[in-house]
Write a structure and sequence with these properties.
155 residues; 5 helices; single chain; alpha+beta; globular; 2 domains; Dna Ligase, domain 1; Arc Repressor Mutant, subunit A
Length: 155
C-alpha cells in the first residue's frame, strides 16, 4: 500500500490520524464492514467515534481511495482494491467475500443490449454461492433451486 498520508494529500484531503487509521484498517481487512473497520481503528489508535469512522469511509470512497460494495441483505463493505472494476463472490452461509477478476475483459466488463443513453463506466457483479468451508454443512441440507418467474404471455 502506498503511504496513506501521501494518498490523502494526492487527493486533496487533509491528513488526519483517523483517516490514516481507516485507510490502514480497510487495507488490512478487505471487504470489512464499517463496524469491523471501526474496531480495527480503535485497536490501532484508541478511541474514535463510530460517526468519525463512517465519515472517513464516506470521504475516502467518494475520492476513490477505497471502494464501497453493497451486497443485497448485507451491510456495506469496504476494500482498498479500486480502479479495476473487479467483481465479488459471496457465500450465502457465512458471508465470506472474495474478489473475482472481471468476467468479460476490460471495464466495465459487461455490455448492455440497450444503454438507454447512459455512459456506462462500471459494472458491479456479485456471484452468490457457498464457500468451500460451508459446503460440508450445506451438503447435508437440500439445496433449493432458484425461483424463476416468467411473465405471462398476453392473449
Amino acid at each position: 500500500m502506498t503511504d496513506p498520508a501521501d494518498l490523502l494529500r494526492e487527493h486533496g484531503l487533509p491528513v488526519t490520524a483517523q483517516r490514516i487509521a481507516v485507510l490502514r484498517a480497510v487495507s488490512g481487512r478487505p471487504h470489512g464492514t464499517a463496524d469491523a473497520i471501526a474496531a480495527d481503528v480503535r485497536d490501532g489508535i484508541g478511541a474514535i467515534s463510530r460517526q468519525s469512522v463512517y465519515d472517513s469511509l464516506a470521504i475516502l470512497a467518494g475520492k476513490g481511495l477505497i471502494r464501497r460494495i453493497e451486497p443485497a441483505g448485507s451491510p456495506a463493505r469496504y476494500e482498498a482494491r479500486t480502479g479495476d472494476n473487479h467483481h465479488h463472490l459471496i457465500c450465502r452461509t457465512c458471508g465470506k467475500t472474495t474478489d473475482v477478476d472481471c468476467a468479460a475483459g476490460h471495464a466495465p466488463c459487461l455490455h448492455t443490449a440497450d444503454d438507454h443513453g447512459f455512459l456506462i463506466d462500471e459494472a458491479e457483479v456479485i456471484f452468490w454461492g457457498t464457500c468451500p468451508d460451508c459446503l460440508p454443512a450445506r451438503g447435508k441440507a437440500k439445496i433449493s433451486k432458484p425461483l424463476i418467474i416468467t411473465p405471462k404471455k398476453k392473449t
